[in-house]
Amino acid sequence: MPAERRLPESLKLSRAGVVYALVALVGVLALASAAQGRAPYLDPMNVSNILDQTALLGILAVSTTIVLISGNFDLSIGSVAALGAALCLSLIGPIGFWPAFLVALATGALVGLFNGVVVQYVGINAFIVTLGTMTGVRGLVLIVTDGRTVTPPAGDGASALRGIDAGRWITPNLYLVAGITVLLLAGWRLWSQRAAGPRDAALRSPAVLVPGVLGLVLVAASPALIFTVQVTQRTTYLLVLVAVAAWVLRFTTVGRRLYATGGNPEAARLSGVAVNRYKVLAFVLNGTAAAFVGVLYAARIGSINPTGLTGYELTALAAAILGGTALFGGVGSVLKSLAGALILVTLKNGFNILNLGANWQGLIEGMVLIVAAAMYTVSARRPAVRTAGE
Question: 243-274 burial string, b = 16+ CB within 10 Å, else e?
């Protein structure tokens, strides 16, 4: 029996390929750093930088994944993020930070609502609608900023803006935490498999052996590898959003209906699911998340210019595709989209750490994206080919 058949579904290449790719990429960069005599690539400071740089892209990748799962996609989020930042910075002086922040979020939600209503109720293709929205909203950014860089006025509003993104926390020993987590996973899988079969077979199962051995190694190594990381406030926002979105998609009726809406809209409609409502809701969430990212970007940079956040929509889409999210709906995981975002950021970080030519960066990122998409496509076809051969 082929090795992949013996693996649990969650560990197969077609399901966890992006995680294997991330681990392999980090391993290659760690070896390259050691070979050049540089500081360890997994130095806590560098890991903190990678997480921090992933935060804004990761939030957009999560919301983009939800739209893709629903069967649509959105090209306007970079412009919406810039508009949210511009509105917030422009209104801090007249009305204060928190009202300006709410105006920015409401504007993002309204743009998402417009996209969803036009796509679902008027019937225009999502690519055309969101491409037009991307251009139109970027024009609004030019109007709001008057074509100039906008900065917040000095005072309490500027302090509140910095305050939503100024916190840092020190993590415990991550090797110990990861080891205990993986051991708990192995214990849960052992208990599940013992209920379904003999104990010896459960102990020999890769689903138990792999996390069990890995967990023991991490726990044993933790005293010598004290690995603490500074987690920024924007990273915390990302982790909370990923946890909530993953839970909703996996364990709630809303999540199941969203997958059904993207996978087979007609069947979902016949089952009583309000398909249009769920698709519009995905657009609204995406617009709100984009505006939130814009405000975080403004808090981090302290300003916004008319071209700010250009291209973020395509990078978020690339992260979702790296995570195996289907462009035609019904398939996707926010956790794997986060892994896809980490791959893109780790590539850029590796180029900087190893002092490689930035001219090659775009080419290599494009190749990684194509290879990842090819892996998922080939892996998805293999069962069908094997069945035909049998």
Answer: eebbebbeeeeebebbbbbbbbbeebeeeebe
